[in-house]
Design a protein that fits this description.
Elements (H helix, E strand, L loop, with lengths): L2 H25 L9 E11 L10 E12 L6 E3 L6 E4 L3 E6 L2 E5 L4 E3 L5 E3 L23 E2 L4 E4 L2 E5 L2 E3 L7 E2 L4 E3 L5 E2 L4 E4 L1 E3 L5 H38 L1
Helix pairs in contact: 1-2
């Protein structure tokens, strides 16, 4: 297989991953607090055997280096639900799971049968002290202050744990809005918490559709190159056999 074919195939492979990333963004455009993702690509050079060839002695291939997560804040949606909470600015809610603490900006919370504040997946939301948030069956109100203090009929029952990380790009994705980190993060001293609102996805549909069209066109170009190169090689082999 010739080098031009290998280069085209490397391009197709990276474009396939890019298309998967774009498709996932579009699928989660209505997922609360979802963060847009994109692939990071890099060209790398490889010395060829024919150093005196017309094209020089270097070949350029494409590879996907990593996946970049756009951590910019999405717009806020007002719900009026007292257990819907949004973080304005930096910070993640801390969630207790079987695999350890996880982090999310999706503040769509609810009460389980025991009166514990949990996520929509049933994972307990933690306070800044690492405790679960326990309410009483007789409570008629839940109020959350701008800085995260939680009040019920019994008074203050805790403060939401809001942590930040030096580099959120190092966080590992557990689900579309849940992340894990080897670093426990640091508490945000003065968080800006908004009760009755949820952060929306920061995906911009028009941009993603444009990206999808561009990726598709690039993939088709690489595909045509592979097809033409395959035909050229077949013709060359046919001429060799006929001699």
């Amino acid at each position: 297989m010739e080098n031009s074919l290998l280069i085209a195939l490397s391009r197709q492979t990276t474009l396939k991953r890019e298309m998967a990333s774009v498709a996932n963004n579009i699928a989660n455009m209505n997922t609360h607090a979802y963060k847009r993702e994109s692939m990071m690509f890099d060209d790398y050079l490889m010395r060829s055997k024919g150093g005196d060839a017309i094209m020089g002695d270097k070949l350029m291939f494409v590879r996907d280096v990593s996946q970049y997560r756009d951590m910019s804040e999405g717009s806020l949606e007002e719900t009026g639900n007292p257990l819907d909470v949004a973080v304005h600015g930096e910070g993640f809610f801390v969630v207790e799971t079987e695999g350890g603490n996880r982090y999310t900006r999706n503040g769509h919370f609810q009460l389980n049968d025991e009166g514990v504040v949990v996520t929509s997946d049933g994972n307990p939301v933690l306070t800044e002290d690492g405790e679960q948030i326990q309410t009483n069956p007789t409570d008629t109100r839940i109020e959350i202050s701008r800085t995260g203090q939680i009040y019920t009929d019994a008074g203050e029952i805790g403060k939401l744990g809001i942590v930040q990380f030096e580099n959120p790009q190092f966080m590992k994705k557990v689900s579309n809005t849940l992340y894990s980190s080897a670093d426990a993060g640091t508490q945000v001293e003065m968080p800006h918490v908004i009760q009755g609102k949820l952060e929306l996805s920061n995906v911009q549909p028009i941009i993603e559709m444009t990206r999808m069209i561009e990726v598709h066109r690039s993939y088709e170009k690489a595909k045509n190159l592979v097809t033409k190169e395959d035909e050229r090689m077949r013709k060359a082999l046919s001429l060799v056999r006929d001699q």
